[in-house]
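Severity: low
Component: inverse-folding endpoint
Summary: output formatting inconsistent between runs
Steps to reproduce: submit the following structure tokens with default settings.
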């Protein structure tokens, strides 16, 4: 055999050995990951199941999954129910959270389920809201760009970043950039927007014409590029499942980070995480659905709101519980507005304004309110909130015109992109289906539990949006018809007797 053939044969054997060694290493890595994930799942599933999960405990933990409408519940329900003195300090700020506050009764945060390790588990009730995974990805993409676009008022990225740091250092509040996952997603999109704007300026592209706001590569990262980026894989996709399971990159437990990486590396291990997430939904006091807005709000008011009212009524002899100091609440900034418009150089007068510290939050909490009154208050609040959100969104998107994200525009996203989003979020798709089943059961149970006059009236009014005076009118008509029916029957009997 000539030297050339010998050398080729040697290279072949060396390559074969490398392939076999790599396969063996990969197998060992998978085996290690599988053992770690299974051990974590087993210990999680062995946790004690609450005997009476339908009863509100001393502490309410609202596990806020981003872009599910949780902020609306926080403002328009929970802040109407809980006085400031009972709210856990700096709920959205992980670094400053202090669960040792004695009278702490309400915690609302984007932190994942691992937060339970910091709380008195036996006396904590958990609630959450889930959203259709495809819509949640759309909303996350849109919101990331919307918030990042507010920085475009600056001449360049360096100026925007420095200004944000200076304003953050001067304020005591918590901005969107402090909150998971926006502290990762917004800077990512901010850098991308500035890079694309600089490219347009360099090439002299002033007028951008496009009919698809989700595919304007000269202005913003296209949706299809966004969903395949490693950052989206780590934070966005299957985010609800990882959050409910306690496995985000913001988790409190050290082992959760390795478990998450193993599941992301080997998709087949995802079913272990899904089982844990389903079990945790089972143990929650309330699970709402963003798409079933009306029914979810009504159920929340009856399941959670009614019990909070009862607790406050039992714990205080006073008719009202004062809202506490304004400063404690006004130190928080909304999870959907960064720096209170501080990133706009022309909005310096608004630098100290807190969106959460609005006048309505300084009202006293009335422990004698009914569920119906709570829903009436909710309707007024949500209308105002939506109006301010729309105005802020419109103002932000003007900076990246003609991009304009709307529900109508979503309808034109290709089937292929939709298929990819569903595939990338297969765990969330399964968890959402499971949540739909839980929601249906809880809705049925709520209807059965609230069969009293007040309960039926509340459910009737809130479900069909009939005001009190209309209900009274209907009742009057029914009573009148009943009286006429009785009189007619009485007259008939009288006529028969005469005959």
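Observed output (run 2 of 3):
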């Amino acid at each position: 055999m000539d030297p050339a053939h010998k050398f080729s044969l040697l290279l072949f054997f060396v390559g074969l050995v490398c392939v076999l060694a790599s396969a063996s290493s990969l197998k060992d890595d998978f085996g290690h990951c599988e053992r770690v994930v299974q051990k974590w799942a087993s210990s999680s599933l062995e946790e004690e199941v609450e005997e009476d999960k339908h009863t509100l405990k001393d502490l309410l933990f609202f596990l806020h999954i981003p872009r599910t409408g949780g902020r609306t519940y926080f403002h328009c329900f929970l802040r109407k129910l809980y006085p400031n003195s009972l709210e856990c300090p700096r709920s959205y700020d992980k670094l400053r959270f202090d669960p040792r506050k004695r009278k702490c009764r309400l915690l609302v945060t984007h932190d994942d389920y691992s937060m339970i390790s910091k709380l008195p588990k036996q006396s904590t009730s958990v609630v959450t809201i889930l959203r259709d995974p495809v819509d949640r990805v759309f909303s996350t993409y849109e919101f990331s760009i919307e918030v990042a676009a507010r920085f475009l008022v600056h001449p360049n990225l360096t100026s925007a970043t420095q200004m944000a740091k200076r304003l953050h250092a001067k304020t005591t509040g918590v901005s969107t950039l402090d909150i998971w996952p926006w502290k990762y997603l917004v800077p990512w999109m901010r850098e991308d927007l500035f890079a694309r704007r600089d490219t347009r300026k360099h090439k002299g592209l002033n007028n951008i014409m496009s009919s698809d706001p989700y595919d304007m590569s000269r202005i913003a990262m296209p949706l299809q590029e966004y969903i395949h980026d490693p950052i989206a894989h780590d934070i966005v996709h299957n985010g609800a499942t990882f959050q409910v399971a306690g496995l985000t990159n913001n988790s409190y437990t050290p082992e959760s980070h390795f478990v998450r990486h193993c599941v992301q590396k080997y998709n087949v291990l995802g079913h272990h995480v899904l089982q844990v997430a389903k079990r945790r939904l089972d143990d929650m006091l309330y699970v709402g659905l963003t798409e079933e807005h009306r029914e979810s709000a009504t159920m929340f008011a009856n399941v959670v709101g009614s019990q909070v009212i009862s607790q406050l009524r039992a714990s205080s002899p006073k008719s009202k519980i004062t809202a506490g100091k304004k400063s404690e609440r006004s130190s928080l900034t909304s999870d959907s507005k960064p720096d209170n418009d501080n990133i706009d150089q022309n909005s310096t007068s608004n630098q100290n304004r807190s969106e959460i510290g609005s006048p309505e939050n300084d009202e006293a909490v009335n422990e004698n309110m009914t569920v119906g009154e709570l829903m009436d208050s909710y309707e007024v609040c949500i209308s105002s909130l939506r109006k301010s959100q729309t105005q802020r969104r419109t103002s932000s998107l003007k900076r990246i015109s003609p991009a304009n994200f709307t529900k109508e525009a979503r309808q034109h996203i290709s089937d292929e992109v939709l298929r990819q989003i569903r595939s990338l979020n297969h765990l969330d798709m399964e968890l959402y289906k499971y949540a739909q089943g839980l929601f249906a059961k809880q809705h049925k149970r709520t209807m059965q539990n609230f069969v009293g006059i007040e309960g039926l009236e509340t459910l009737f009014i809130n479900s069909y949006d009939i005001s009190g005076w209309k209900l009274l009118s209907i009742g009057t008509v029914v009573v009148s018809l009943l009286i006429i029916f009785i009189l007619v029957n009485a007259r008939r009997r009288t006529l028969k007797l005469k005959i």
